[in-house]
Amino acid sequence: MIQVVLPAHLRKLAGVDGDVKLEIEGPVTLRSVLDTLEYHYPMLRGTIRDHVTKQRRPFLRFFACQEDLSHQSPDTPLPEAVASGTEPFLIIGAIAGG
Amino acid sequence: MSKVRVLVGTRKGAFILTADGKRDNWDVSGPFFTGWEIYHLKGSPADPNRLYASQSSGWFGQVIQRSSDGGKTWETPGGGVQQGPGPMPAGESNKFVYDTSAEHGKPLTTHQWYDGTQHPWEFKRVWHLEPSFNDPDTVYAGVEDAALFRSSDGAHSWQELPGLRGHGTGPKWQPGAGGMCLHTIILDRNNPQRIYIAISAAGAFRSDDGGQSWKPINRGLKSQYIPDPNAEVGHCVHHIAMHQSRPGLLYMQKHWDVMRSDNAGDLWTEVSGNLPTDFGFVIDVHAHDPETIYVVPIKSDSEHFPMDGKLRVYRSRTGGNDWKPLTKGLPQSNCYVNVLRDAMAVDSLDSCGVYFGTTGGQVYASPDAGDTWAPIVRDLPPVLSVEVQTLQ
Q1: How many Å is the Cα radius of gyration of chain A?
Q2: Considering only alpha carbons, which residue of chain A is nearest residue B76?
Q3: pTM surpassing 0.90?
Q4: Do B60 and A10 touch (CB under 8 A)?
Q5: C-beta neighbour count of A79 within 10 angstroms
Q6: Of the four listed, A6, A77, A83, A96, which is most buried by Cβ atoms within 10 Å?
Q7: Cα distance from B93 to chain A (closest Cα, Å)?
Q8: A60 and chain B: CB distance < 8 Å anywhere?
């Protein structure tokens, strides 16, 4: 199971209290994680990546295993520790006040 | 007995204030959607329990919320949790995509930027939601960058009315300080084909064919801050109000100037009269008298607070020009709040109630058409919008 940590605003929107756990078939990539997340939580569509272009929203970043994965190709495999569920995949809102 | 429900959008969530017809004892519920900006929420005239809310964030974009029980519970239309296998759920209630199809003439894709260069249209948020008079599932959305969208399935999906953005003047539209927003939508209860909208800073437009085609209605406006003060478009209209019993009579609070049109916007005349300053954002009309109107004068475009630290609503009973300050119950010293463009509304009880919210987090109510005021709440986040439902 993949663990996904959402920022507080999106946890409220999705109605979840803690981490989201996702079962993913096939390669574990940014794209497959976000596709699966949006499948189970369709209210999140458009809030993490654009509806049409699928580009990451500019004030969001993706971290895992102390690495910034925001700019890597959506089809690059995520670290094994994420795929095995020992490390979470973090969706982080940029720190910009508010 | 009649009841009043006040819908308040703020920088950090929504609140619903309710009272009976006396309007002296208020119940406050919320915050809803905490941490999100709620630019606007509004109830359907066809079903008062159907509410729509625009929830947005600079980080996470736009979300549309809908309630079918008067605001007790909310949902993102079509966006419920998907437990088992199945096709990809729609989850498109927040999908606002500009229409660039060839059959609609490839509407313009650039507008004027602050520095006069051309800039691509980019969707940012929904400023205003206007439910239909007849169908609770039909609702219009005014968005930034300026365009008009409509949903006819209860906000599950949205389609642009591209005739407005494709009107041909788009390259002359430019953003105001708050962005290039379509902030006002007025439907005509007696003429479903007629729609008015206003854009900051493009001006006012009218459609007489249900939103397919549009004409600018800015003749008579004078704006010294654009190269041609009498231009067809480019005016920073802040808000427009109309009484449904006099559908051709419009009132406008422009950046500077309070204006009036008696012919559905074909020609405007200034009615600022004896106002101490005619800069401001809100304007609204008494529920039972189309010639009684309200504004909140703000000192200037660089000093967004009341003059002399005195919060005064001005009322005209003559459709403008002759204004009287209303101060009883409002702070008359050291008050430096603003009242934003969608933050005033009226109820339709026999004694018309008037309501407005401030950037200081107060929502004031007057149960006697403005003669006296009292705060319903004092310490909300900055108020972005106020709407009122009169419930039987």
Answers
A1: 12
A2: A43
A3: yes
A4: yes
A5: 16
A6: A6
A7: 8
A8: yes
Q: State the DSSP string of A33-61.
A: HHHHHHHH-GGGTTTSB-TTT-PBPTTEE
Whether A21 has its CB under 8 Å from any CB of chain B: the answer is: no
Choosing among A9, A32, A37, which should be mutated to test the B contact, i.e. which has the most B CBs within 10 A?
A9
pLDDT the model gives residue B86: 77
Q: What is the DSSP letter of B171?
A: G
* Residue B288: exposure state from Cβ atoms within 10 A (0-12, 13-18, ≥19): middle
Chain B residues within 8 A (CB-CB) of chain A?
33-36, 57-63, 76, 78-83, 88-95, 97
Chain B residues within 8 A of A43 when measuring between CB atoms: 63, 76, 79-80, 91, 93
Q: pLDDT over 70 for what percent of chain B? A: 100
Quick one: tokens of B28?
């406050």
Looking at the DSSP bridge assignments, the partners of residue B28 are B17
Query: Which residues of B fall within a CB distance of 8 Å from A37?
Result: none
Put simply, whether A11 touches B (Cβ < 8 Å) is: no
- A65 CA to chain B: closest CA distance, Å? 23
CA B256 to chain centre: 18
Is B89 close to A47, i.e. CB distance below 8 A?
no
Show Cβ contacts of residue B316 under 8 Å, excluding neighbours closer than 6 positions.
Answer: B271, B273, B291, B292, B293, B322, B323, B324
Q: How far apart are CA B37 and CA B59, in angstroms?
A: 11
Calpha distance B47→B70 (Å, rounded): 9
Name which of B82, B80, B121 is nearest B99 in CA terms.
B121
Output the six-digit token pair for B169: 């003047």
**Residue ranges of domains in chain B, CATH in brackets:** 47-78+90-337 (2.130.10.10)
Q: What is the pLDDT of residue B78?
A: 82
Omega within 30 of 0 (cis) for the link into B201: yes
Segment B138-178, tens digit of pLDDT: 999 999 999 999 999 999 999 999 999 988 899 999 998 88
* A22 has a chain B CB within 8 A of its CB: no
Measure CA B206 to chain center.
16
**Run of H or E including B42:** strand B37-43
ipTM, 2 dp: 0.90
Asked if the Cβ–Cβ distance from B82 to A41 is below 8 Å, we say: yes
Q: What is the CATH number of domain A2-93?
A: 3.10.20.30
Contact (CB<8Å) A57/B60: yes
For B290, residues 6+ apart whose C-beta sits below 8 A from its C-beta are B243, B245, B246, B249, B319
B59 with A13: Cβ contact below 8 A: no
pLDDT for B142: 98
**Residue B391 tokens, joined:** 């419930």
